[in-house]
Every structure is written in structure tokens, then in C-alpha cells.
Design a protein that fits this description.
heterodimer; A: four-stranded parallel sheet; B: alpha+beta; Beta Polymerase, domain 2; six-stranded mixed sheet; 10 strands
Chain lengths: 165, 171
């Protein structure tokens, strides 16, 4: 065994997906009480950094994951759309909590609440709960990592074409 | 100093401005003429040691055909709050003098009261909506408010009456 023998063979897809799924940079984006759980997930007890997902960025231009944590009002919806469009591809969205999934407790009388953030931006993972526990958010992030790992990263529109798993 | 003392002092000072008291529960309140509310709050602040204004809010009374602005001036000296109620006509002409020059705290409270009830505050330094978007139509806490179907192209109800999540061509 000499120094030149350490060769690893892989595909472009696998190496890109491996890198992307294990270095998700979420956008710091808390809208309501779900954001408290998101912060707890990032803090020492639950330590999101173990999954390569703890680098909360303060600008959409450096982020590739948006965790919509909280009630999306109609006033906020257009801002969310703008932030989503400012994120560089490839990008993913986790809808965290009942409010951003489907309006939550404001589903009937909430004149000011958008009934689901998927009405303005595409969503990859929905997390139920009001608010979800940090374990639930961690499971959602692991689920998203599984989803990223079977994407065809090198071909086609990124994030949409998928390999048969 | 009790509520009755405050009420009698105000009645002597402002015989025109005080319209009576309401035995509302749990706290009695004083009914005030809209034109006198600024002078009365100034008198309460300067002469009767009511240092703070805890809240300005609104009530809609469709049965009385009236809108109401409720002031909660508070006193740390007397350890009490005296609610003042100003009744206004339930039209676009519901206007009352702003008290932001007396209590800085009134600024956002009056903006919220305008936002939710459409009550205008004259001489307010920044008379805009505070919670709803600038282009919002209507005043949501009025009892006859109807939730819009669409706002800026976004459907507002979860499902429409026919069960569809969105309606084509409705906006």
C-alpha cells in the first residue's frame, strides 16, 4: 500500500448530494411560537449541529433551507415569497407547525392568516404539531436529508428530477 | 381617593364634558363627551396624579349604532384605573381628538384602534394602519366586517363554500 493507492470511486450525484444534505444552512426565519422550538432545536440540548444543519444564516442569499416556523399572515406572505426567491438554488422548504401547514387555529376566523404556506412557495416537508417538539423538527430534517440524497443533482432542474429510490 | 371622588371632581370641573357614569362590571366607567376627552385626560394627568395611560381601545356597538373608544388612565399614586368611554357615531365620521401629545403610549394604541375600527384620531402624528397591510380594505373588528375572498391574489378562506380551495378568475 503506497501513498497513491487511496482512490475512492463515486458518482457526481452522490458526492454533490452527500455534501448538500450534510451541510444544510437554514434561514433564520421565525414567525411565531414555533420559532421558540426551532431555537431550542438549534441550542445545546438538541444540538442541530450534529446533523450538519445548525448554521442559521441571517440572509437568504447564504441559505438553502427555509424553515417556515410560525403563523404566516397575509402581510408576511409576500415577504416570504421574496425571501424564497432570493435564496440560491438548490433550495428546500420545511413547513413547521399547523399554522404554516394549513392555517392552524386560524383556519376558520383568521381573516389575516394565509391558510398554508404552500399557497405561495413549494414545500418539501410538512411538520405537524402546535408547536412541534424539537425531536419532530429533527426528524423532518433527517427526512429532508434522505430526500436530498436520492435527487439527481447533476442533471436537469435541481431539486425536481428524482432518481427512483 | 375612590372612583366616586374622581367622578365628582370631574363633574364639577367639566359639567359639559362628563355625560354620566356607567355601572359596568367589574369596574364602573365614566361616559365622556368626544370634544372634552383631551381636556379631561390633561386634567387627570396634571391635577389628579394619573401618570400613565394603560390602554386605548375600541368597541363596536351595532345595536346602539355607536362606536366607542375606551381610555384606561392609571394612577400609581392612588393605585387605581378609571375607565373613560367616548361614544361616537357608527359612520366614517367617527372622529376624536388624539391624546398622543399627553401620553406617548397612546400613539400605537390609537393607530391600532383606527386599524381595527376605523375611528379617526385628529392631530395624530402618524395616522396610519399599524397591523394590517397599508392596502387592506375595511376594519376587521367591526361586527359587520366580511372577510375578503382574496387579498393580492392569495385566497383567504381555507375552502370556499363549494369545497374548492381556490376559485379560478375570482381575482
Amino acid at each position: 500500500m503506497g501513498p497513491g493507492d487511496n482512490v475512492v470511486m463515486t458518482t457526481m450525484d452522490d458526492v454533490l448530494n452527500w455534501g448538500r444534505s450534510n451541510s444544510l444552512w437554514p434561514l433564520t426565519f421565525g414567525l411565531a411560537c414555533c420559532a421558540i422550538e426551532m431555537m431550542a432545536t438549534g441550542a445545546a440540548d438538541y444540538d442541530l449541529e450534529r446533523f450538519g444543519c445548525g448554521v442559521f444564516r441571517a440572509t437568504p442569499r447564504q441559505a438553502d433551507l427555509m424553515i417556515v416556523a410560525g403563523t404566516v399572515t397575509l402581510k408576511m406572505a409576500s415577504r416570504i415569497r421574496m425571501l424564497y426567491e432570493q435564496m440560491p438554488d438548490p433550495k428546500w422548504v420545511i413547513s413547521m407547525g399547523s399554522c404554516s401547514n394549513k392555517g392552524g387555529p386560524y383556519w376558520q376566523e383568521g381573516y389575516h392568516v394565509l391558510k398554508g404556506v404552500d399557497r405561495v412557495i413549494p414545500v418539501d416537508i410538512y411538520v405537524p404539531g402546535c408547536p412541534p417538539r424539537p425531536e419532530t423538527l429533527i426528524e423532518a430534517i433527517m427526512m429532508l436529508q434522505k430526500k436530498i440524497k436520492v435527487q439527481e443533482a447533476a442533471l436537469g432542474p435541481i431539486g425536481f428530477a428524482r432518481k427512483q429510490a | 381617593m375612590t372612583f366616586e371622588d374622581i367622578f365628582s371632581k370631574l363633574s364639577q370641573k367639566f359639567p359639559q364634558g362628563i355625560l354620566g357614569k356607567e355601572e359596568t362590571k367589574p369596574d364602573a366607567s365614566i361616559k365622556v363627551d368626544p370634544l372634552a376627552i383631551h381636556d379631561i385626560l390633561k386634567y387627570l394627568r396634571d391635577e389628579l396624579n394619573f401618570e400613565t395611560l394603560h390602554m386605548v381601545s375600541g368597541v363596536d356597538y351595532p345595536a346602539l349604532s355607536a362606536l366607542c373608544v375606551v381610555y384606561h388612565p392609571g394612577s400609581y399614586t392612588h393605585k387605581m384605573i378609571v375607565p373613560l368611554k367616548v361614544y361616537l357615531p357608527r359612520t366614517d365620521e367617527a372622529k376624536v381628538e388624539s391624546v398622543t401629545d399627553l401620553f406617548k403610549a397612546a400613539n400605537w394604541h390609537e393607530r391600532e384602534t383606527y386599524d381595527m375600527f376605523g375611528i379617526q384620531f385628529l392631530n395624530h402624528p402618524d395616522p396610519r394602519r399599524i397591523l394590517c397591510p397599508e392596502d387592506w380594505v375595511g376594519f376587521p373588528l367591526r361586527k359587520d366586517y366580511v372577510t375578503p375572498d382574496y387579498y393580492n391574489g392569495m385566497p383567504v378562506p381555507l375552502y370556499f363554500e363549494d369545497g374548492a380551495p381556490t376559485k379560478e378568475g375570482a381575482h
